[in-house]
Amino acid sequence: MKKRNAFVTLTILVLFASTSSAAYGLYETTHPWTHYRHDQLRSGYQPVSTPNTNSTLWSWSVTSGTPKNPVIAEGVVYVAVYDDLYAIDETTGAELWTVDVNGGSSSSNIGDRGPTVSDGKIYVGDLEGYLWCLNATNGQEIWHWPISIPPGDINTSPVVANGRVYFGTADGAAGNNYLVALNAATGAQEWQYTAPDNSILSSPAVDGTWIFFGCDDSKVYALNDTGNYATLKWSKTTGGRVRSTPCVYGGTLFFGTSSTDHSVFAVNKTTGGPIWNFTLQSYYEIAYSLAVANDVVYFASPQSLCLCS
């Protein structure tokens, strides 16, 4: 009898989660993955044991489009497809809700790097230059930025730290290329740092008040959030555009570069001074982001998976 009651209760909970406009995950997430590349440092690493079988627990699919970089928090998986954001129960795979996220038109797709979850809110940018803050339990809009005409595309994944949301914009030679800081609660703009006339497609990493990001001007930048504005601490020039998201590990910053360098660089995070670099034999762009764990750097090129230690 107890088993039957438990089964009935579970069934009711799943049905409720599938139909409620304010749905929660069936169980709490034991190992959240709230940011693109896991965390504010963009480590790409979660210190948990991997499954010991390849058994599929559940699957979820859409009729068209490719899901983009899911994040997990409070028992819910959040994933974007085109201009739609979906919430899926982490335990069952049941779809909890979906919302159409768009700005000036219905074709404003969500950026490729996907959403971020923090403090019951979802932050996500779109390719018309809007940054959206949504309620994580039902997808309802809390605020969006900007109110007037937006700058370039937001194709970076926001990072939430210091009570702020940081992200980059991309408008190439048109000049609307900024690293922007918004108040995470209200969406009010705190400051913006102007990049050269080159797009920012590298999602920022944050370590304390330090912010690191790459740019299509072949540089990596380190800013310090002073409160009212950002100060440039250092920049490092490489041989090609930097689209991989930097990763902070201890006192070192790691990032990859385009086909001119086709290298992974390790630099001092406070000075930008070189520590080492690893160069691929073939001229392939390292546009993918890195992962660092236990003193080993993992990265992918178009034709291989590499490890550095």
Tell me the structural class.
mainly beta
CATH superfamily: YVTN repeat-like/Quinoprotein amine dehydrogenase
Shape: globular
Cα gyration radius (Å)? 20 Å
Structure report:
The chain has one domain: 7 Propeller (Methylamine Dehydrogenase, Chain H). Helix content is 6%, strand content 39%. It has a four-stranded antiparallel beta sheet. The protein has a four-stranded antiparallel beta sheet with strand order 5-6-7-8, with no helix packed on it. The longest helix is centred in the N-terminal third of the chain and has 18 residues. The N and C termini lie far apart (56 Å). The N terminus is likely disordered.
Short characterization:
With 309 residues, the protein is mainly beta. Helices cover 6% and strands 39% of the residues.
Question: What topology emerges from the helices and strands here?
Answer:
Layout: H1 2-19, E1 68-73, E2 76-81, E3 84-89, E4 95-100, E5 116-118, E6 121-125, E7 131-135, E8 141-145, E9 159-161, E10 164-168, E11 178-183, E12 189-194, E13 205-207, E14 210-214, E15 219-225, E16 230-237, E17 247-249, E18 252-256, E19 263-268, E20 274-279, E21 291-293, E22 296-301, E23 304-308
Antiparallel strand pairs: 1-2, 2-3, 3-4, 5-6, 6-7, 7-8, 9-10, 10-11, 11-12, 13-14, 14-15, 15-16, 17-18, 18-19, 19-20, 21-22, 22-23
